[in-house]
Amino acid sequence: MTRLSLRLKAFLVRTIQSIFTLFDLYFSHPLPQRVSFTRKIKSTVSSIPGSIDLLFYTPPSYTKSSSKTVKKHLLLVNFHGGGLTIGHAKDDARWATSVTNEASAVVCSVEYRLAPSYPFPVGIEDCVSAVLWLWKHADEFNLDISKTAFSGFSGGGNLCYAVSIRLHEELERLKREGKLDAGLEEGKVVSLVVFYGSTDQTLSRAEKDASNPNLIPTIPPFLFKLFDESYLSSNPDLISPLLSPGIASDEVLREGLPDRLVMINCGGDQLLVEGERFRQRLKGLGKVVDGYVVEGVGHGWDKKPTWKGGDKKRDEAYAFAVKSLNGVWSLV
């Protein structure tokens, strides 16, 4: 497809997808929390200038007070899904609500720039820029950045791995070149929460489908084609750890990823096998990887409007992930 054709198709799909999201966020009960406040920031890491929005969800106990007597709030940075081509930072409002209800944590969902206008690696660099900005402005928002965690769904799950690795590279570069901003307090990424994230871009969609005999198709092939042609239009090397963390070197994974992770995969997903393979590999490297496979569901099952019916499997998965996060936060 031409770049113009990709943009037109992406615009159409985004419009349709936003309608389904509206049904979920405004007509499916119980309703999730609304955005508490937003900030617009510049993407400082990307070579392509631009701005991105940060959406904040805060717990009932939230206060901006920087008084030493007031406990700082934990920080979870979230990356939405959509093949890095569609989707919005509001898509994960239900997940953010689960976190703010059960933890004294602020959730910041990043509205990174999307392909095909901004292909790989712009979205990753936008998210790294967001993390650095949050760390620099931690006092303003009363955040404990020594306990930063990332979360993401689908393409956003891949971003969890990629942003963690790219952030490590950026910090090392700044230190090496003596350019670490004096106003930046370096935080620490202590956990990733990944919902059905991709880990191996070298595999074709057909190979991914064939790997799971219990496949439950939920995304039509033309959408996968749109995602792949849009995000990969910069012709990157598919073995890059920022695209395929599942085949990255042991050194990259040891240094670039935190010691504790949560992985929630779908039993009927084309990404199941590569995700579970990556889980075992990380465990073999000494990482602690919580999580499980949600049986009987396909990719993105938790994003469907439920009206008044609710979704028990979704609620259980979110509760498990928050419990695991709280466990990590209590240890560090």
UniProtKB/TrEMBL annotation:
PANTHER family registered for this protein in UniProt: AB HYDROLASE SUPERFAMILY PROTEIN C4A8.06C, ALPHA_BETA HYDROLASE FOLD-3 DOMAIN-CONTAINING PROTEIN-RELATED
Keywords: Hydrolase
Ranges for domain Alpha/beta hydrolase fold-3: 76-301
Spans traversing the lipid bilayer: none
Gene3D superfamilies listed in its UniProt record: alpha/beta hydrolase
Tree of life domain: Eukaryota
Name of protein: Related to triacylglycerol lipase
Entry GO MF terms: hydrolase activity
Native species: Phialocephala subalpina
